[in-house]
Design goal:
homodimer, 495 residues, mainly alpha, Neurolysin, domain 3, 3-stranded mixed sheet, 22 helices
Chain lengths: 495, 495
């Protein structure tokens, strides 16, 4: 067997194990039966370990290096480069310490869950400090010449480092804080109490199905299930699954979350099938992935035209509540701006501030400017300063998101980078299709087609930078986002 | 790490890959989306290959041999013995030929599907001949001193070979053919046309849920899905899944099949969880597994007391049909005896004959007394002689079951061995619980408890022979089955 075939087969083996692990992850996180879920979490762990073993096989590393000396077609070159990068990073880490890290993450996760229940950060403080030290050390081992935090940022959005982010986020912070102040002083505010009226869970699930179908999600190439922490999982373009959380008194969150995870899933479903089993049939960067979730959630799911077409979903499922509500009332309430403590339930204006707070804290932690023990205090001060509200306890505050307690640092900024990209890409789309507002109401398939053509199909074949460049976007830029938010919310709140 | 731990870890790895493969098999066989199903069949293939690689690792073989020299507790001894047996069998086969065999099976399976569609045995004749030759050769390589067909039988019901089976099946054939004749001449025959009235598929699925819950299947430790070829899958005691086929004009088949696969699943669900990840948390033999499917399908699902309690399921789901039917009519039609061409839809009296035909043919094929090309003719002659009916084409005849075309020989007899065991175990249960008939109506949980205590919990920790012995059943014996069938059907048909 030639080297080329050997590498392709090895990559296929990695990919099959990864896909199986993803299916088992789904089994562990959805459905019923605590015993089953626990067992599948174990099986998933075994498969993930296998994936890493295969990715760090020295013979595979040599093979990739040899092959990359040759003339290769684009798909082969890109997939070998991708796997070599993985190989090099993972091989730079000490095996034993890396395995311990998995155990540390699992322990921290479980301590975080208890700490959250008991609303006491102290219970997980030591784990967190340890995870941060380990990540710093791994970054140092991988590359002595680049700041650890930049290396972490690189994993989620390659090439966008603190210098750039500082500048982007500063402008966004200034503008959104001012805009928030104007909105809060606006004379007319929505009455959103109807959104909190009980909406049976089965009907919310029906609503989720209807919304997903409306945006073009193919139900026969995925799955939808209820869960505690929403997620989407791009196992394969023919199996892009999503799990959503429903709460009886919060149908608004469920609808928007469905569109958010649905946006991720539209990306996952529309990657070219030719990339299956190469390792390239996944989103290109976390920032770009997030941009698509945000686009379908906020730029379609909060587009008035979309609801002109689809408000009847609510009215048919719950006529006793929604037949008394006008489209204008519904839409105003859907877009309500109101500072709140929980990031993933935040409105469009305060959402960036939630992300910026996390970014500032992460950056200071990795620059040794902040002690882990001071986190809850720093968190609360920032919430008061930027949003004017203060968590009553650690559960509503520093413990709300799992990321840090699972060793994920440098991830949060991609939520806001995604928002910035979403606005830039929206502008690019409007240049091609000036009738965007009509399409958002009448023909979402044209929008999905554009997205697929310019973004989704490529998977990891293009970097996010290349995707932007091919749409004549030379660089990440926060202005389109700020224009978009200002115009939209000045209009909604009649400022 | 000590050898003991090393072996346990290796076995756990095998088991996790097996469980993952089983989940992927489920994904490949149920649900929608042809692309997804095809991909998961590939991933399952990869995982299964991995399982075999792990099972035949020479280091693992040596480890097991060393460990079995030691004093071990029962669970360790049994699991090492089980894996060593697997190891020895698989290692006796030439690696390359064994891999080719997998490909041959896949090819034969696909040719079988076309042949069945086109009703032409010729299209798969060569594949079948090749699979038979390969199985003969593998058996020879594994053990020169035992007839190949006996070796194959051994895989499904250890220790029960042709000599024994000839004797058991001959008596069953004689008795059932005579009984069938008397039944066909009985003056009163049921009118079962109501079973063929349209019964919407969603309602059949609800019925399946209700029946499964009635027999004690825990819905939170399994899954039920529609499929084309019914099966059950014991991935883990907390995840015993089953897939059932529904046809609008055949609710009777769906109900009985649900109870059949449900019986398998009750076994799978009630294996001791202490055996998880040892390789022993599965049914002990195919014959015993089948006996439990048959018990719940035929000895509970065709028990009048059971339907006294549960006939209202039909009446509530389809009052327009079943409110006009009396329990007596329903029960008589459910137990109707009528020769038909398809094995898995057969009644209790002709079912053994379907199995015996397949057994006689297999035996002759492996003894070189029958040419593959003569199969359709021989099949049809036997159907005429034993059942008095003749298939109109190969699809209804020799092509109906997939087993042979997937290389499975020696498997069919376990269906009838299972029926024999079911009757023997029923007698043992009645000795312990003489109020069996009352329990079948009023307290199935007592029956499930007995089954779990004496059979299910042990998984592969006891052989079927040991399980029978501990219930004072010294040997397999067809008489309880014949007594059971004769009494029951003389009563039903008032002979």
């Amino acid at each position: 067997m030639g080297e080329l075939q050997e590498a392709i087969d090895h990559i296929q083996l990695i990919e099959h194990c990864r896909q199986a692990a993803a299916v088992l992850f789904w089994e562990a996180k959805t459905g019923t039966g605590i015993g089953r879920k626990r067992q599948y979490a174990k099986v998933q762990g075994t498969l993930t370990k296998k994936v890493i073993e295969l990715q760090t096989d020295p013979r595979f590393g040599r093979l990739l290096q040899n092959l990359l000396q040759r003339d290769l077609d684009e798909v082969h070159r890109k997939q070998f480069e991708f796997h070599l990068k993985n190989y090099q990073y993972l091989s730079s880490l000490p095996v034993e310490e890396f395995q311990q890290f998995s155990q540390k993450k699992a322990a921290a996760y479980s301590h975080w869950a208890s700490a959250k229940r008991l609303k006491d950060f102290k219970l997980v403080e030591k784990d967190l400090a340890d995870l941060i030290e380990t990540q710093k050390r791994f970054a140092y081992l991988n590359n002595k010449h680049e700041a650890p935090y930049n290396q972490l940022l690189d994993r989620y959005e390659p090439g966008i480092h603190t210098e750039k982010i500082d500048c982007l986020f500063k402008n966004i912070k200034d503008t959104t804080i001012k805009l928030l102040d104007r909105i809060q002083k606006a004379p007319v505010q929505p009455d959103s109490s109807f959104f909190r009226r009980p909406f049976p869970l089965e009907k919310q699930e029906q609503l989720a199905h209807q919304l997903l179908t409306a945006i073009g999600y193919r139900m026969d190439a995925g799955k939808l299930a209820p869960t505690l922490h929403p997620f989407s999982s791009g196992i394969h373009p023919d199996d892009a699954r999503l799990a959503v959380k429903y709460a009886e008194n919060d149908v608004k969150s469920a609808a928007l979350m469905t569109l958010h995870e649905g946006g991720h899933s539209l990306y996952n479903q529309n990657i070219s099938k030719e990339l299956v089993d190469t390792g390239l049939a996944v989103y290109t960067s976390m920032g770009l992935h997030e941009s698509q979730a945000i686009f379908w959630e906020k730029m379609i799911g909060k587009h008035k035209g979309f609801w002109k077409q689809h408000f009847h979903f609510f009215q048919k499922l719950m006529p006793e509540v929604y037949s008394h509500i006008s489209l204008d009332q519904f839409y105003f309430s859907l877009c309500e701006v109101k500072p709140s403590l929980i990031r993933y339930e935040a409105d469009d204006i305060t959402y960036p501030l939630h992300v910026i707070i996390r970014y500032e804290i992460e950056k200071d932690l990795f620059a040794d400017k902040l002690k882990v023990s001071d986190l809850p205090e720093v968190w609360n001060v920032k919430y008061r300063n930027y949003l004017g509200i203060v968590p009553q306890n650690d559960c509503e505050g520093v413990l709300q998101d799992v990321h840090w307690y699972f060793g994920l640092f440098g991830y949060f900024p991609s939520y806001l980078i995604g928002f910035i990209y979403a606005a830039q890409l929206r502008e690019a789309m409007i240049k091609d299709m000036p009738n965007f507002d009509v399409l958002a109401q009448e023909d979402l398939s044209a929008i999905l087609k554009w997205k697929t053509k310019h973004i989704y199909q490529y998977g990891k074949l293009k970097t996010s930078k290349e995707i932007l460049k091919d749409l004549s976007i030379n660089e990440i830029n926060e202005k389109p986002l700020l224009t978009y938010l200002t115009q939209k919310y000045e209009d909604i709140y009649r400022l």
